[in-house]
Structures are given as C-alpha cells and as structure tokens.
Amino acid sequence: MIGKVISSSTQTVQFRIHDAEEFENVKVGDLVVIESKYAYLARIHELEARHLGESVLPDKIAALSYPDTVDTIQGLYGPQFYYTAFASLLGILDEDSKRIRGAKSLPKYLSPVRRVTEQDLAFLSATQSKICIGTVRDMTVPIFLDVDTFVSKHAGVFGKTGSGKSNAVKVILREVKARSISTVVFDVHSEYGYHPDGLGGLDNVFVLGLKGAECDVSLHIPRTLINPSELTAITDLTSAQQDALDLIHHRERDWLNYIATRGTEQISEDFGMEIHLETISALKRKVARITTHEFVGEQFDSLTYILKKISHGGTVIIDFGDYENNEWVIRLVSSIVGRYLLGQFRTARRRNQSLPKTLLVLEEAHTLLSKELARGTVFEKIVREGRKFNLGLCIIDQMPKKILDEIISQLNTIIILLLTNLKDREQLINSSENDLTDLKEEMKRLDIGEAIITGIAVPIPIPAQIDLFDRRTLEERQEKEEFKEFDWN
Ligand SMILES: Nc1ncnc2c1ncn2[C@@H]1O[C@H](COP(=O)(O)OP(=O)(O)OP(=O)(O)O)[C@@H](O)[C@H]1O
Ligand SMILES: [Mg+2]
Question: How would DSSP label each residue in 117-144?
C-alpha cells in the first residue's frame, strides 16, 4: 500500500502517501489502484507536500532546523507534515472480464491505494487487431495499439526536437509493415530509407528519392498530373493571372509545358488576344518555378508506381534528399502525391474495389498543415474524408501550436512526447477531442522515448516507454520468414 484516500470527487482523488513509502519514488504519471468496493485505476497528475497550515511555518522550520541536527520534517515538527498525490480516475478494473469500464462512482475515504500490477493491466492486451510499440513506463507490460483505428482514424506524434518522434514512427512502421498495412512516408530529413537506422532495402520497402537522396528509384512527377492549385500553393497570383491560368488549363492538358515553351505572343493569339502579354509573361516566370525542377517531366510516372506498391501492402518512403529545407518543394510533392492517392482511393471505393488500408506519414507537418496553409489542402481533405475509405494520416511535428486546430481535433490517437513549450501543450489540450487536461504537467516532464498515448487506439491514456527502433530486429524477422518459405525439396 502506498497511501490512503483523504478526499475524492469525480474530478480528482487525493490520497495521503504513507510515511513508509519513499515519497520521491511516487511520480507524476504513475498508475495506481484504489481498493474500495471496486478497484479503481487512477493516474497521478499532481504531487504536493502539505502541512496543517501556519502562515509563518517555513520561517519556523528554517529557525528550528538550525544548526543541522534534524533530517526529517516529522522529526522536527511532529506528524502534521505529510505528502499527498492527486490522481484522476481512469476507470474500474473488472478482473473477470479483463476489461476496464467507466468509473461512475467514487472510492470511499481511507480506501487503500496501491501501485498497479501487471495483472491489473491485462485489459491492455484485449485489443483486437493490435500492434505493440513499447511498454508501460517502469513496467514490463507491453502496450498495444488498435491498429485499425490508429491507421484509419488519423494520429499525431508530437514532441520537441530530439524527444523521440521519428523513432516512435519507425517502431509503428515496423509493426504495421508486419501486418501488411501500406504506408507512404514523406521523409523530409532522410531518416526512414537508406539511413543506418532506416527501412531501406528491406522486403517490400521502396525508397523513392529526390535529388541527392539514396534511393531505389528517382521520384518523377508527370507534368500533366500537376494542377493549377499547385501553382497557387507556391506563389500568389493576381486575379488576371488566375483567370488566364484557368482559361489555359481548361484548354491545354499539358498546361505547364504549354505556358513554359510557347511564345508569349503566340499564347495571346491562341486565346484571341483575351490574355494580356504582361499576364502571360508573369505566368511564364511563375510556371518556371515548377518546370525547371528535375523531378517534373514526362518520364517514368512515380505516382502509378506508388499506387502499385501500396496495392500490395508495401512501405513507400519518399526521401526529399537535398530539398529537406525547401518548403515549397515539400508542399508541391506531398500535395501531388496526396491528391493522387485520395483520388485513387475515392474511385476505388465508388467501384467497390477497395485498396488496402494505407497510412500516410507526414513529417514536419506544419509545412502543410499550419494555421495559415492547411485549409483547403488535400491533407485537410484526407483528414476529413479519409476514414471512409481506409486512408489515414499520421502527422508528426515538434510544434503542435503551429498546426491548425481543426486538424488536431480530427486526430483520434495522439502520442505525446516531451513538450516543454506551454503553448504547444495548450494547443493539444484545447484542440484535441480527447480530454488531455490532466496530462498537462506530465507532458513537460517526459524523458527521451517516454510518451503518453491517448485516444481511441488505447483504452486509457497510457504512460509509455516507446521501444528503441532497431533495424536488425526487422532483418532477423525477414530472415526467419525467408527460411520458412525456402523450398527444401
Ligand atoms: N524510445 C527511445 N528509447 C531510447 N532512445 C530513444 C528513444 N527514442 C529516441 N531515442 C534517442 O533519441 C534520439 C532522437 O530521437 P528522434 O530522432 O526520434 O527524435 P525526434 O523527436 O524525431 O527529433 P527531431 O525533432 O530532431 O526530428 C535517437 O537517435 C535515439 O538515440
Ligand atoms: Mg525526427
């Protein structure tokens, strides 16, 4: 037993920590069980050193404790000093059915409080289609996510730089790959492909690269699949330019090539002098920002390549290579790929030929989903509609405060790593559909690789230690599979 309940409300149960318990071993985020008529599972969200209350007490302590002869506050001042913890109720444990149900009642005064055991957490493994991404913090109990909801109902991984986001995503990729769920990773910082700790070269993993990236194939986007909206995403157009663009796009399928290569006056003539020469010149300058890139052309169409790979449960990694800091190339490529896939998934659904469940992983999500840019983009559409046809989005960012609120509210699973910035924590608390208020303190105290996993893919918000991704385990898995498949005759 670590303590006894001294007050309880539906919001918070407060318990006094037993004197025999080492107070500093009781931590924010710890799970405890309160034994009353029911076994209540609760999580500590606040700790406090308390006393019976005298306004000048600290002065008295200071005076009486000099010279240093007493070590404990009780030794100095008697039993009126104690430590308490505040815990929020997560539910009632039902040992027989290995389930947790909502707590609609309260534990009684002086109910004993003990630490959670592995047995108490048996309900964590009751999930149907599950993937394991780590253990409950300070325990060996594995944590399972319901993979179907994780993938199709969108997820977010947030934490300050170096907190362990990319590692967590690699662990997720490791697991979804084993379940033949397809993924497309927008790998802005070249971490997921041919990185010493990436997935490049593994079975059913395909790395497409932009300039400078080590890859299986170079990424090429056919010009004709680029929409005028991609031009408006990277540059401001006047209304005259926008009108002209609409006219040209309406008539010319290869509109980019047409504007880039046809003479200014010829274009004007083609359109019965409806478009001013200055407007055409300006459009030509702006279009060059797309057409001069080596990945835009008529060659090999990477989009159908990606579709083919994900149709067979593949892991597709788009490595941005030298463009890692070029926001508009990141926006352009991600939007085109995203739009193409959304279109394919919509069509497949209309024709009743559903494509495999697919997860799109967006690193540096604010590049596309910031408050200024996100509205109307394809990823906003995917977040709104994707779940209907098994196309899910997992966004990763170090500054959730930059991400549009409506996007955060659609993320049904959130993995929170260390967040030291108050505004980042507040953004998650204010925008998420899950109640994260009690986790506010804990979010700023996490170590690298420690996380809080909340949302519909888990039965309760779980204090987690995420596995450290190790490419070797995947290679070993693959070797075992190959060994099994080898035809010994
Ligand atoms: N679960 C973990 N267990 C142990 N170490 C970890 C864990 N997660 C991350 N680390 C360590 O922290 C380092 C940084 O992790 P990672 O690259 O995942 O951080 P990040 O949040 O993606 O950072 P950035 O914002 O810079 O992209 C890793 O190289 C690894 O050494
Ligand atoms: Mg990272």
Answer: -TTGGGGGGG-SSEEEEEEETTS--EEE
For ligand 1, say whether the CB of 448 is within 6 Å of any of its atoms: yes
The string of pLDDT tens digits covering residues 374-403 is: 888 899 999 998 888 889 999 999 999 999
User: What kind and span of H or E run contains 362?
Assistant: strand 358-362
**Total tally of structural domains belonging to the chain:** 3
The closest alpha carbon to 243, from 222, 265, 226, 228, belongs to: 228
| 322: region left, alpha or beta (phi > 0 left; psi from -120 to 50 alpha) | alpha
User: Is there a domain that residue 99 lies in?
Assistant: yes
- Residue closest via CA to ligand 1's atom 28 equals 164
Long-range contacts at 252-259 (CB < 8 A, ≥ 24 apart): 253/224, 254/223, 254/224, 255/228, 256/223, 256/226, 256/287, 256/290, 256/291, 256/296, 257/223, 257/291, 259/283, 259/284, 259/287
Which of 448, 452, 473 to probe ligand 1 with, by most ligand atoms within 8 A of CB? 448
Structure-token match 């010994």, residue found? 488
Same domain, yes or no: 262 and 337: no
| Atom number, ligand 1, closest to the C-alpha of residue 189 | 27
Beta bridge partners of 260: none
Total Cβ atoms within 10 A of residue 429:
17
Query: Is it the case that residue 422 has pLDDT exceeding 80?
Result: yes
Tell me if 136 is assigned to some domain. no
The residue among 172, 158, 102 whose CA lies nearest residue 431 is: 158
The CATH number covering residue 395 comes to: 3.40.50.300
Asked if residue 157 and residue 20 are part of one domain, the reply reads no
Listed residue (148, 154, 123) closest to 136, CA to CA: 123
What pTM, to 2 d.p., does this model score? 0.91
Nearest to 356 by CA among 206, 177, 123, 118: 177
Residue 174 has pLDDT above 80, yes or no: yes
Could you tell me which of 174, 209, 176 has the C-alpha nearest to residue 193?
209
3-class secondary-structure state, position 294: coil
Q: Render pLDDT for 182-217 as a digit per residue (tens, 0 to 9).
A: 999 999 999 999 999 999 999 999 999 999 999 999
- How confident is residue 310, by pLDDT bands cut at 50, 70 and 90? very high
Q: Whole-angstrom Cα distance, residue 72 to residue 23?
A: 12
CA distance readout (Å), 473 to 136, 139, 154, 190, 478: 21, 22, 27, 21, 9
What is the distance between the alpha carbons of residues 360 and 335, in angstroms, rounded to a whole number?
A: 12
Closest to 207 measured CA to CA, from 319, 338, 320: 319
Tell me, using a 6 A CB cutoff, whether residue 164 lines ligand 1.
Answer: yes
Q: Is the Cβ atom of 468 under 6 angstroms away from ligand 1?
A: yes
Identify the residue whose C-alpha is closest to ligand 1 atom 23.
162
123 in Cβ contact with 93 (< 8 Å): yes
